[in-house]
């Protein structure tokens, strides 16, 4: 059961700023008292207050801590392995402490191999009544973005490896995509210049909608390679289910088409 549900009664009655924390081996609540520190890791009490990764020697005995000061809980990594936060943010032993926002924050302690150990955190707000059960409510659909037919076909061709859910996928080059699009639609007038123009138009349009990943160049950092922004575009469209594996059927007329990289 998620921390947000298992601690619902405690959160509802807790003072603002109260910290609730949970791992697979235990949970705790801590009041917002100046200077109070909550420690988590593989070790035993009194060295740590909350156990995490108890059987994983890659997890430090005291891997992290949360200290209440200046009206907030501050997270610090004190272990040898990285701690991963939402949006892919990482914390190293040398990283400055970060303040937690009100509400729910998951963090992951890197372990052995592909293991990551979850620590769920919840900071009560001023008017926090605790999580409300919504088991019978309709599921909220993912936020998706509208694409016209040409845009969808172009993005499917460029992002076919993303739609196959390959590990660490990369977009096809514009040259590869142009060759495949010409084969699929000889009358489509596809070329590298047109592809670049259409992709930039999509990036500009979605940039104004609060897209999850950066889609435009940061002028203060010079002009990076467009490939990174195309990667962001394809990654966001696939993660949001704007593009889904059945979209690969748009290429079904091309059943004999080999991997573009093998065509030279």
TrEMBL record:
<dbReference type="InterPro" id="IPR008984">
    <property type="entry name" value="SMAD_FHA_dom_sf"/>
</dbReference>
<feature type="domain" description="FHA">
    <location>
        <begin position="38"/>
        <end position="90"/>
    </location>
</feature>
<feature type="region of interest" description="Disordered">
    <location>
        <begin position="23"/>
        <end position="42"/>
    </location>
</feature>
<dbReference type="Pfam" id="PF00498">
    <property type="entry name" value="FHA"/>
</dbReference>
<dbReference type="InterPro" id="IPR000253">
    <property type="entry name" value="FHA_dom"/>
</dbReference>
<keyword id="KW-0597">Phosphoprotein</keyword>
<protein>
    <submittedName>
        <fullName>FHA domain-containing protein</fullName>
    </submittedName>
</protein>
